[in-house]
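Dear colleague,

Thank you for sharing your sequence with our group. We've completed the structure prediction you requested, and as agreed, I am returning the results in plain text so they can be pasted directly into your records. Please verify that the sequence below matches your submission; if there's any discrepancy, let me know and we will rerun it promptly.
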Amino acid sequence: MNRRAQRNRIMTNTHRIGGAPAAGRRWTLGALVLAILALGACDTQELLEVNLPGRVAEEALDDPRLAQTLVNSVVADVECSWDNYVAASAHHSDEWIASSGNSTMARWGLRDIPPSFESLATGGCGASYGLFTPLHGARFQAESNYARIAGFPDAEVPNKTALLATIRAYGAWTLIAFSEGFCGTPLDGEEQVRTPTELAALAETQFTEAIELASAAGLTEIATLARVGRARARLTQENYSGVLSDAAQVPEGFRFVATRDNAPGDRQNAHYEAINGVASDAAGQKHATIAPNFRDLRWKDVEDPRVNVEWDGTLGFDFFTRHFRHDKANSFDSPTTMASWEEAQLFMAEAYVMTDQLDEARAIFQMLHDRAGIPEVTAADLPTRDDVIEHLIEERLRQFFSEGGHRLRDHLRWRGTPYEVPFLGEPGSIHPNGRLLDPDTGEPLREYEDGTCFPVPLVEQTS
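Please find the predicted C-alpha cells below.
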C-alpha cells in the first residue's frame, strides 16, 4: 500500500470540520465503560453525557457566520478531486506507460478500470486516484452549501453574491470531469445515468450562473474561470458559436489553478506523488514512465519545449523500467491548472476547424508556435481540413501534456472517427498487439485491458 493510500485509510473516519479520528473516539468510550464498571455505585448519568468535539450537527452549519467556511470547504474538496482526476486521466492515457509493481497503481496504467475497481469507486482524495467518491462529494457539497448560503438573509452575509459565485464556478468543474472522462454518472441517487452531453449541459447552466453572479460581485477572475469552463462544456455539446463567444473573452496570460502544498494528505499534488516524482525525493513515486513516443517531440526538426522530458537516472517502481519524467509538476506543492488562456485558444481552434474556418485555426497554431519559439505552421503544412484536425489533436497534446485531462478527452472525443487517438494496447498505438512492452528492451510484459472512459462503479449501479 503506498503512502497516499495509507494516509487515506487513517483519515477515512475523520470528520472534515475539526474532527478527531473515529478510532480515537472509540478508545475514549471504551475506557469510559471500564471506568463505569470500576466505580460501580457512582452516579453514571453524568459520565455518559460525553461531548464528542469531532461531531458537528448539520443544523450547526445553518449559521450565516459560517458562510465563508462553507465556501472554503467547497474549494478545498473541488481542488483535491480535480487534482486526482487530472493525475488519473494522464496515467490512463497513452502519455504514460506502467512501471509499477504495486497492483493497484499498475492497473491505472494497464487500462484495467472495471466498474468493480475499488480505487476508482470508493477511494478518497488521499487514495490512489480516488475519483468517483471525491468528485461526487465535492459536487454534492457545492450544491448543498450553495443552497444553504442562498437561504441566509442578505443582511447577515454582506458578500453573499461573491460567495455564491465562487461555489458555482468551482462546483461545476466536477461536472466537467464527469462529462469528459466518465462514461456517464447518476446524480444524487437517481437510477438514470446521465450522459456526458447531459452532464456538460448541466455544467454550462452552473457556469452561466457563476458568470452572472461573479460579474455582479466584481469577481473578474471567477467570471473568467467560469467562461473557460463554459466554453469547455459547450465544446462537448458541439455549440461552436458559444465556444467562440466565451473563449474570445479570456485575456492572454490568464491561468487559474487548484493550489497544492507539502502537507501530507489531500493537499499534495497527486500527479507528482504517483508518477512524476524527482529522483532526489524518496516520497515522490514512479508508478509510470513517459511513453517513448512523447520523448524528444519536434516540429520541423526543432525540439518543442512544451513537452520537456528527461530520464532522471532512476528506475520505476517495477525496478527495471527507466523512469522518464517532465518538468511541469516538480514538487508536492506544484499547482494544478483548472483553466487557462491557452485552453481557451485551443477550444477556439477546435470550434473554427469544426465550422470550416481553417485559416483561423491555423492562425492560433501559429501564435502558439511563436510563443514556444518553434517554426511556423503554414497552409502548405496543413492544406486540408483533415490535416488541420489531426494537427489540432497534436497541438493539444503538446500544449497540455499531462494537464487538465485533455489527452483522455481526445481519446474519447475522436473515438470512432477517422481521427481516432488509440489507447495503449490498441492498433495504431505504440503497443498495437494488446501487450505492454518493456520500453528499453521491447520484451512483452503484461496484457492491457479494454478500459476507455471511467465507468459507473458497481456499487452505484441499481440493477
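Summary note from our side: The chain has one domain: 1-19+54-463.

Kind regards,
the structure core
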